[in-house]
Specification:
Two copies of one chain form a homodimer. With about 325 residues, chain A is an alpha/beta fold. Chain A has a single domain, classed as Metal-dependent hydrolases (TIM Barrel, Alpha-Beta Barrel). In chain A, the strands form five sheets. Chain A has a three-stranded antiparallel beta sheet, covered by helices on one side. A three-stranded parallel beta sheet of chain A has the order 2-3-4. In chain A, helix 2 links the parallel strand 3 and strand 4. At the A-B interface, loops of A face loops of B.
Chain lengths: ~325, ~325
């Protein structure tokens, strides 16, 4: 029996939320299940990851859940951060500092309002080669303007794109809280710009899933004056989902670059190990949910057909 | 004790959903409670109001609930409608025909896809002076483009604006299903265009609340792949709400034109009777909900401060 397959070397998710407690126990295992062996881990916990010690403790917790994934740890940019702490973090293997505009996403109440106060931090980051010449990543672009801005900039500026923003437009999340995330999906022309930049194989645009699990009751219900939680959860189906989407707009040949090569090159994490193979399928349906203990999550595309599955080794 | 008051002659809501059954019993009484004595009633029931007989039956039901309001009845434009039925409807006091683009709002599955098939209907409507020279109303404009389009057209084309679209922008309904309605609220510049056209006192732009009650469980919950109900409910607080909003952008002097004079003139329903007086207040809070029997509704601005209240006669 013949089948269509495609192989990808060491898929890497350069923006993922692995949470805390029982939810973390559930979703951290989904990184590998979704085909990924590297997770660039977001620090917006409660409280946020603000120093090296907290980052290393969190990394230990994630490794205890699934030691087969490489976790790249990050710090939350806050007034407490010092140039000395940057140097300490670099020595301990921390790879980035995340800047959260205040109040725009989950646990961003401590986000920044002005960058000027952080100039000494950025200088220290550059000095320790945390990024050679301070690399900057625009996370999850959703507009044509963002794509064009990043394209116009030099080699130290890159951009992550989520899987779900390749699929959704504003009509898909209007009243449908499960598709509601921040940044919100925009208009068809914006989605087209995201698809086009992937299709052209631009090396500074790569996957960061922004996979963001929330308890189902926080996703499904809103009360007057209170929004439901923002976030779309893609981890357990991530590689098959991205393959399905890229195939839908004729960019399947760019899969490896988008989900592995481009991001790894930008962050200096190249590898030739860890091949993952996908098989084209016609009757595969995404799970309605996953549970573990008192935690459960509902994935993007729950109950929908998906065009690819990971071949078990 | 002094107080600030403002009086309006015979407020008229030129676009309101009064529903059926127990929900209708509850919300029809809110027209008068909200300060209005004329309701231009939408025909998108289940099944829709498609002929004169159904319109008159529905009117009788509404009058039984509250005989103090003048109900202007409309038909749902569908392939069943004939030029003869238009003449019959006119003779029976029906005042308009509503065209629903298919599938875009509540109970619009039978909406239209192309206007050409209806040209004979429009001709008959013009002949019977249902509108002299076929007046057309763009319902609930939400964009600057819509405002500019209507302004550019002649005296037979008017436009309704809801109260809530004077308040909301996209961020207010993102994840907040209680503020989700169709058309969705757009960007700050679009809201500014709606406010500006009211502030200039343009006579072809007037209030149509689009007040659209839904059972709370249909507003608060969405499941994957299924949107919650679209609609914002403003009837029981309508006149105080509009006064509060117009005051917020310096257009309180245009209140009477916007909520009564302009729409009544366009539809040929002028009157000098029925003055309603509002009093400025500082500690008034909008009810969290209203109930009657098994029906309940949650209003826009539930639990929020509102700046005006109707003076009881």
């Amino acid at each position: 029996m013949s089948s269509t397959t495609i192989s990808v070397t060491a898929p890497a998710d350069f923006h993922v939320h692995l949470r805390q407690g029982s939810l973390s126990e559930l979703v951290t295992k989904h990184v590998r299940q979704g085909g990924f062996s590297l997770a660039y881990v977001m620090p917006n916990l409660t409280p946020p990851i603000r120093n090296t010690e907290e980052a290393l403790l969190y990394k230990t917790q994630l490794q205890a859940i699934d030691p087969s994934v490489e976790y790249l740890m990050t710090l939350y940019l806050s007034p407490e951060l010092t140039p000395d702490e940057i140097r300490k973090a670099k020595a301990a293997g921390v790879v980035g500092v995340k800047s959260y505009p205040r109040g725009v996403t989950t646990n961003s109440d401590g986000g920044i309002e002005s960058y000027e106060v952080y100039y000494p931090i950025f200088e220290a980051m550059e000095q320790v080669d945390m990024f050679p010449r301070l690399r900057i990543v625009l996370e999850h672009a959703t507009t044509r303007a963002a794509v064009e801005c990043v394209k116009s900039l030099g080699p130290t500026v890159a951009c992550t794109i989520t899987a779900h923003h390749l699929d959704l437009v504003v009509d898909d999340w209007a009243g449908q809280s499960w598709n509601f995330c921040k940044p919100v999906a925009k208009f068809p022309d914006d989605r087209l710009a995201l698809r086009e930049v992937i299709k052209e194989g631009h090396p500074r645009f790569f996957l960061g899933s922004d996979s963001a699990p929330h308890p189902p009751e926080k996703k499904s219900v809103s009360s007057p004056g209170h929004a439901c939680a923002a976030g779309v959860y893609t981890s357990p189906i991530l590689l098959p989902l991205v393959a399905t989407l890229l195939e839908s707009f004729g960019a399947l040949d760019k899969l490896e670059g988008f989900v592995s090569g481009f991001g790894r090159a930008f962050y200096g994490r190249e590898t030739t190990e860890g091949k993952v193979t996908l098989r084209k399928v016609s009757d595969k349906v995404v799970n309605e949910s996953w549970s573990l203990g008192d935690a459960s999550v509902v994935p993007f595309w729950a109950g929908k057909n998906i065009g690819w599955e990971i071949v078990k080794e």
